Amino acid sequence: MKADGEWGEHFPMMTALFTYYDSYSYPPWPIEEEQISYIDRENGLAEVDLGGEGKTILHWRPVLEFVRDEASGYELADDVRDYVGEDKQKELLNAVLVCDKTSRKYRIQSRELYFYLKHNIAIPRESFHARHTRRMKQLMRCDVHSYNCDKCGKEVQTVYNKSVDGREVWCGECYQGVIM
Ligand SMILES: [Zn+2]
User: Fold this and answer.
1) 1 within some domain
2) 128 and 152 share a domain?
3) pTM of the model
């Protein structure tokens, strides 16, 4: 690996867990609705304004939460105990719900309903995606900081926050120079 210059590089793209046009960056850095100028539902594409970096066409998964669906007419009960009976459970599990926050369609799964009933938790009125996005925003703070390499002084950008972590930040070359 050292002879071929692979040492210290990222793993090859063929081992990536995502397709080339997908990214795991959307949960920590979500696209805001104001950034979307156009959604092409037929081809699953969206035009997104990246601010200072101009506009780009994205596969629309990161903007899906802004696709509005029509209300399905199913009235969700506030009290989960309304779903103790089998008929009401079947009705709920077959219903298409529409998210209060994103207007996106979602459904309740049987094991999920079992969990809500067991713990006396109201059926969520937000879709899985809206709940997941909200949780990710709480969990992940991935701000990019600019520092000077603590070894050579070159400017580097990193997700480490020195004021919190207190660790040294080195540039790629300095780091590679030590681990090689
Ligand atoms: Zn350096």
Assistant:
1) no
2) no
3) 0.55
pLDDT of 147 reads: 95
- Lowest mean pLDDT segment, chosen from 28-32, 38-42, 128-132, 148-152: 28-32
Contact call for residues 109 and 127 (beta carbons, < 8 A) = no
Instruction: Say yes or no: 130 and 113 in one domain.
Output: yes
Indicate the number of domains in the chain: 3
Query: Which residues surround the ion ligand 1 when the cut-off is CB under 5 Å?
Result: 149, 151-152, 154, 171, 174
Distance CA 3, CA 81 (A): 66
Say how many Å lie between the CA of residue 150 and the centre of ligand 1.
7
Domain that holds residue 157: 145-179
Rounded Cα–Cα distance for residues 174 and 121 (Å): 53
Residues 130 and 89 occupy one common structural domain: yes
Which two tokens mark 92?
């709920």
Write out pLDDT tens, residues 142-171: 788 999 999 999 999 998 888 887 889 999
Give 180 Cα–ligand 1 centroid separation in angstroms: 15
Distance 176 CA to ligand 1 centre (A): 10
Q: Do 91 and 55 belong to one domain?
A: no
> CB–CB of 29/144 below 8 Å?
no
